[in-house]
Amino acid sequence: MLLRKIKNRFLKFNTHPLTKTNPYGALFRYLLFNITAKINNRPRIYNWINGLKFLAQRGDAGIVPNIYFKLFDYEDSRFVLDNLGEKDVFIDVGANVGHFTMLAASKKCKVYAFEPVPSTYEKLIKNIELNNLKVCALNKGVGAEKGILNFSTQRGVMNSVVFDATIASLEIEVVKLDEALKSMEPSMIKIDVEGFEWFVLQGAKDLLENKKLKYILIELNNSGIKFSIQDELIHKFLVDKGFYPHQYDFESKKLNQITDYRRDKFNTLYVRNHA
């Protein structure tokens, strides 16, 4: 099992744009991190891209792959770095420990980051402070209606909304984007909320009508099934709102429209039809 996992990682190192020329270096970083974390799993500071740094320990799935891949979620991360600037407003819904929040803030964007789970929010704040970034971080969930929802507490940075009373959970305040960001005109919204994406969109209908909003990066990986939401429903909703799925060619820095949401990766980038 362990050897298979290492082999699979090595295969990915051979195809990733930043590690394919030296996959053994990436493998060394991967093994070193896991061995070190096994001995003493304390948060450590790692140098990153664009002069950024981040704190990470084993279990921080939203940031750890950057240690050995250098820049994980490469296509989407490069899109943020290549296309956003100081005139833009970036909304990070489900900020986790700050991967996209830090990238956008490093480009001088005005950033609003929502992270509901207190333990993960604390790590987000530490990463923001570590880099002296200007970010408005809110320890709140986002949904279709203002209120209180239960979030799981036993899944580390993968915690999410739960309706099962048998799962250990914590009551957390939830807001609608339309109310929390009423006066904002975002250029881009990133949504990664472990299957709760549909409900976030339902609370952001006014924002979606704002012509300043050009890009939506959203996770579609069938995780919405636990809430009886199909990815196809979200795709149709966004297309009806005038947002179409695109693939970003980071070498030519061009956007290419595609016919459906991405099935080869978790995130799909939707672009407003006039953008």
UniProtKB/TrEMBL annotation:
GO terms for molecular function: methyltransferase activity. One of its GO terms (biological process) is methylation. This is FkbM family methyltransferase. It holds the Pfam family Methyltransf_21. The keyword Transferase applies. Keywords: Methyltransferase, Transferase. Residues 92-224 form the Methyltransferase FkbM domain. Coiled coil: none annotated. It comes from the Bacteria. Gene3D superfamilies: Vaccinia Virus protein VP39.
